[in-house]
């Protein structure tokens, strides 16, 4: 979702910076890079140390995401990755799912506010699995819900951890360059869903050939 449906990482950066200042912590560029594609439990512990009890880790993650939703409430349309609406509507018969490390409230918020929720037959968030990305569990769970074999799935990812998870799930991975210019392990990298090379590549895949 983040970085694929919505180009949200710039807003997540702002939200983490504001949130961390509540605790006197200045967010470095290295900390921002650490955040991309990770579950909030890992991010909070990475920022504040492993000594926090889980209840506090979860509370801080939830508070940061509340701040994030406040910032993006009126910006969803401008945050959509270019071409995503038309792309989703172009393949009505292809089963589609969302596999995200994001908090449940964020997933619901983005899909509801964007109006894209009806495009997906399965939605799995970071709280639905025991092991978030880079573990492949979240992708395998979506494939199971869609009743599609993993090797017949195509993953769209913007993060290194997401690509690792997709590869580990034995799925083909398309890299979306909202966060990184190069994503090792992908079958193809494109700027967004307006890409002609993406359409041509998909046409060569048996699931999209029609």
Q: Any idea of the CATH class of the largest domain?
A: Alpha Beta
Rg, please? Answer: 17 Å
Principal-axis shape equals globular
Which spans of ≥5 residues are poorly predicted at pLDDT below 50?
A: none
Q: Mean pLDDT across all residues, rounded? A: 94
Please count the beta strands (DSSP E, at least 2 residues each). 5
Instruction: Find the CATH topology of the largest domain.
Output: Rossmann fold
The succession of helices and strands, N to C, reads HHHHHHEHEHEHEEH
Euclidean distance between termini CA atoms = 26 Å
| CATH level-four homologous superfamily name of the largest domain | HAD superfamily/HAD-like
Tally of distinct domains: 2
Give me the number of helical elements. 10
- Quote the beta fraction: 5-15%
Describe the structure.
With about 210 residues, the chain is mainly alpha-helical. The protein has two domains: about 10-70, DNA polymerase, domain 1; about 80-210, Rossmann fold. It contains ten helices and five strands; from the N terminus they run H-H-H-H-H-H-E-H-E-H-E-H-E-E-H. It has helices at about 10-20, 30-35, 40-50, 55-70, 75-80, 85-90, 105-115, 135-145, 160-170, 195-205, and strands spanning about 95-100, 120-125, 155, 170-175, 190. The protein has a three-stranded parallel β-sheet, with helices on both faces. The chain has a two-stranded parallel sheet with strand order 1-2. Helix 9 links the parallel strand 3 (about 155) and strand 4 (about 170-175). Helix 1 (about 10-20) packs across helix 4 and helix 3 crosses helix 4. The relative contact order is 0.14.
């Amino acid at each position: 979702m983040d970085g694929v449906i919505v180009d949200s990482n710039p807003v997540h950066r702002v939200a983490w910076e504001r949130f961390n200042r509540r605790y006197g912590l200045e967010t470095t560029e290295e900390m921002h890079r650490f955040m991309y594609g990770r579950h909030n439990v890992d991010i909070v512990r990475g920022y504040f140390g492993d000594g926090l009890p889980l209840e506090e880790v979860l509370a801080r993650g939830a508070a940061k995401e509340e701040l994030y939703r406040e910032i993006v409430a009126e910006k969803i349309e401008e945050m959509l990755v270019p071409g995503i609406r038309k792309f989703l509507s172009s393949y009505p018969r292809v089963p589609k799912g969302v596999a995200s490390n994001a908090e449940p409230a964020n997933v619901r918020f983005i899909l509801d506010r964007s109006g894209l929720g009806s495009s997906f037959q399965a939605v799995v968030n970071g709280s639905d699995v025991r092991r978030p990305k880079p573990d492949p569990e979240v992708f395998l769970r979506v494939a199971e819900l869609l009743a599609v074999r993993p090797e017949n799935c195509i993953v769209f990812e913007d993060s290194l951890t997401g690509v690792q998870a997709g590869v580990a799930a034995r799925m083909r991975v398309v890299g979306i360059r909202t966060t990184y210019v190069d994503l090792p392990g992908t079958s193809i990298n494109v700027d967004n869903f307006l890409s002609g090379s993406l359409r041509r590549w998909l046409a060569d895949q048996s699931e999209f050939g029609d």
